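User: Earlier you gave me the apo prediction for this protein. Now I'd like the version with orotidine-5'-monophosphate bound, so I can compare the two side by side. Same sequence as before, with the ligand SMILES added.
Assistant: Got it. Here's the input I'm using:
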Amino acid sequence: MTKSTTDRPLIIALDYPNAAAAWTLLHQLDPRRCRVKIGKELFTREGPALVKQVIAAGFDVFLDLKFHDIPNTVAAAVAAAADLGVWMVNVHASGGPRMLIAARERLATVAQPPLLIAVTVLTSFDQAELAAVGCAGETAARVLHLARLTAAAGLDGVVCSPQEAALIRADSGARLVLVTPGVRPLTAATDDQQRVMTPAAARAAGADYLVIGRPITAAPDPLAALAAIESELN
Ligand SMILES: O=C(O)c1cc(=O)[nH]c(=O)n1[C@@H]1O[C@H](COP(=O)(O)O)[C@@H](O)[C@H]1O
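And here is the structure of the complex with orotidine-5'-monophosphate:
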């Protein structure tokens, strides 16, 4: 196993219903200590204006819209994300090689491309749900297959569960950036996540970035919850 030494490994998921709620937390965060993620709910409510404002406040923004469509559409969408100035953007690896390559090639034409990351198997999936959507075989094997597809298409990294981080690291070395949601301190509820690990275990398994939402955002004292996670990692 390779323990990653990425600086600022924490990405806080701003899964809030509106900008005001997100800013309540953002005003208390130090962009030198963490990065943030804007996903479907907040983006759909507040749009690109909020993304630009959060970047202007000094934060690296992971725009998590998990694009999955025909190659031309996804290539145009990641280019639009790049125009916003985001630090990271994601697509679904199951969109296939042509979609992945089209996205990567389009970003190669922009001045400051974000990291382009592909989601393997959502961390909310367990073996039974994967079978329900017609994917036979072990979850880890499918994650590894999609990680290899992503690497072959020349993307920067993958989103996976921390439970698969060591497997992908062993297979791809330092080639892929590993972004892991499904991170839960021992005392936190797992919510709808199925394939989880603690922050320290995720880092020890080789995760570069830990995406953490509700263990911080739904905590009675979000800053105390963040500080506890930081101290677990240091
Ligand atoms: O791409 C993602 O960020 C993502 C992929 C995945 O497989 N699982 C997953 O939970 N996520 C996102 O990571 C965040 C996890 O949030 P919490 O479960 O609250 O920590 C959510 O914003 C999800 O949309």
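For your comparison, keep in mind: The beta strands are 10-13, 35-38, 61-67, 88-92, 115-119, 157-159, 177-180, 209-212.
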